[in-house]
Write a structure and sequence with these properties.
Layout (H helix, E strand, L loop, with lengths): L17 H6 L2 H8 L1 H36 L1 H11 L1 H11 L29 H7 L6 H4 L1 H15 L6 H12 L5 H15 L4 H17 L7 H4 L4 E6 L6 H14 L4 E4 L6 H14 L2 E3 L7 H14 L4 E4 L9 H14 L9 E7 L5 H12 L4 E5 L9 H9 L3 E5 L7 E3 L2 H8 L4
Parallel strand pairs: 1-4, 1-5, 2-3, 2-4, 5-6, 6-7
Antiparallel strand pairs: 7-8
Helix pairs in contact: 3-4, 8-9, 8-11, 9-10, 10-11, 10-18, 13-14, 15-16, 17-18
The structure holds guanosine-5'-triphosphate and magnesium ion.
The site of guanosine-5'-triphosphate has 21 residues, from helix 13.
Length: 433
């Protein structure tokens, strides 16, 4: 079918009515003349338009749809990819979890292990702390024992006690730091009791004679038992004899037995001496009374007694400067100290201990002689027996002065100031302990 449209007629003449012109329009005319065709077109054209629109618009719609579909895929993939991680975790939790479970099983094993460990640990600790090894006196007296008894044994060797042997014995005793007087005394005893007998008798006789001399200077009773309170102790001796160290050890002993101790730093000649005593005071846990270096030692002694009274101390121990017994002013100063100590307590000092270094041998005897001339020495402290071969001087000191030997120093440790015991000493000397 041919549709003819007279396009030039689309423009109606200007003189025509608009409504008439519209009716007269060829398109309208064509529609009125072909109603069936118009209906058919009206049915088909929208479908065609819809189809075209669907095809055009549908692609655009599908494209994002496919993208949207594709997007979720990778989105779904990524969680899947990330799943191995979370999956692996539960796998680890599921499978290896039971594996570590057996590990916790051995865990209880180490648990009981540490339990028994701490138990045995505290056991040896208190044992070590409670019982520090007390070195036998024999070990500490080894050098003196070798000098005296070792030489004696070498001399005797199964001989008879005759003039020749006595002569050799005399030589040995006079060079054993016993002092001339004591050496003579011991030789006389051997002559009287062992002449003509076996040499083995000489050892027994000498041993008994030495014990007899030392037993005379065995302190009787506790010094604090009869003394007033505070018990005042003055410590004297020449330079380096061991005064300050012995004071520290003694303070520690008193403190350990529950006594309250006050120390007096009466050695004002050296600043280091005050510091040395202060170190002991800190270590022991007791007060130290002191003054500036160069201060008056008598004033320190006086203040120490005052402080001990005020603080209700049980013991006051006063240190002094090492005094050269040949320097008279220093020895006079010692007399001054003794006088001020008795101002508040008439009986003070209850003890005046003379500290002697056993290494000085017979010089210790001359020191004792001079100190006893200027003050009333109530007791001796013989130090450094652990390293000395001249410890035999203790026999000479006992024999000549009869002054009780209160303590022996057998080392630098706080436990190395020991009570003197004559029996123990002789046993150690003759290697019988
Ligand atoms: N091996 C040993 N050394 C000791 C003993 N007693 C004291 N000493 C040491 O001897 C040295 C001198 O001791 P001090 O206590 O300073 O002597 P001091 O008499 O106070 O001396 P001054 O203050 O100079 O008069 C120190 O090194 C002590 O450790 C002992 O029994 N054995
Ligand atoms: Mg000193």
């Amino acid at each position: 079918m041919r549709i003819e449209i007279a396009w030039p007629l689309l423009y109606a003449p200007r003189a025509m009515d608009p409504t008439e012109a519209l009716i007269m329009h060829p398109a309208v005319t064509w529609v009125t003349e072909n109603p069936t065709l118009v209906v058919i077109l009206a049915m088909i054209v929208p479908s065609l338009i819809a189809l075209l629109a669907e095809r055009l618009l549908g692609r655009r719609t599908l494209e994002p749809e496919s993208e949207a579909v594709a997007a979720p895929e990778p989105a779904a993939t990524s969680p899947v990819e990330s799943q191995p991680v979370p999956i692996a975790e539960p796998v680890v939790a599921e499978q290896p979890a039971p594996e570590p479970e057996p590990e916790p099983e051995p865990e209880p094993e180490p648990e009981p292990e540490p339990e028994p460990e701490p138990e045995p640990e505290p056991e040896p600790e208190p044992t070590q702390a409670a019982a520090p090894r007390r070195v036998p006196l024999r070990e500490r007296l080894a050098r003196t024992s070798d000098t005296l008894v070792g030489r004696l044994n070498g001399l005797l060797g199964g001989r008879k006690v005759d003039a020749a042997l006595l002569e050799e014995l005399e030589m040995m005793l006079f060079t054993a730091d016993l002092g001339v007087r004591t050496a003579e005394s011991l030789l006389d005893t051997v002559r009287q009791k062992a002449s003509g007998g076996d040499a083995s008798e000489v050892t027994k006789v000498l041993r008994a004679a030495i014990f007899e001399k030392l037993a005379r200077v065995q302190p009787q009773g506790e010094p604090l038992a009869t003394a007033g309170r505070p018990h005042v102790v003055l410590v004297v001796g020449v330079n380096g004899s061991g005064k300050t160290t012995s004071i520290g050890k003694l303070a520690a002993r008193y403190a350990q037995s529950g006594k309250k101790v006050v120390l007096g730093a009466g050695d004002t000649f050296r600043a280091a001496a005050v510091e040395q005593l202060q170190v002991w005071g800190d270590r022991v846990g007791c007060d130290v009374i002191s003054t500036r270096a160069g201060g008056d030692p008598a004033a320190v002694a006086f203040d120490t007694v005052k402080a001990a009274i005020a603080r209700e101390a049980d013991v006051a121990i006063v240190d002094t400067a090492g005094r050269l017994q040949t320097k008279k002013p220093l020895m006079e100063e010692l007399g001054k100290i003794v006088r001020v100590l008795s101002r508040d307590i008439p009986e003070a000092p209850h003890e005046t201990l003379l500290v002697l270094d056993s290494n000085t041998g017979q010089n210790a005897i001359s020191q004792a002689r001079l100190f006893t001339e200027v003050t009333d020495i109530t007791g001796l402290v013989l130090t450094k027996l652990d390293g000395s071969a001249k410890g035999g001087v203790i026999i000479g000191l006992a024999d000549e002065f009869g002054i009780p030997v209160h303590y022996v120093g057998v080392g630098e440790g706080v436990e190395d100031l020991r009570d003197f015991d004559a029996r123990e000493f002789v046993d150690a000397l003759f290697n019988e302990s």
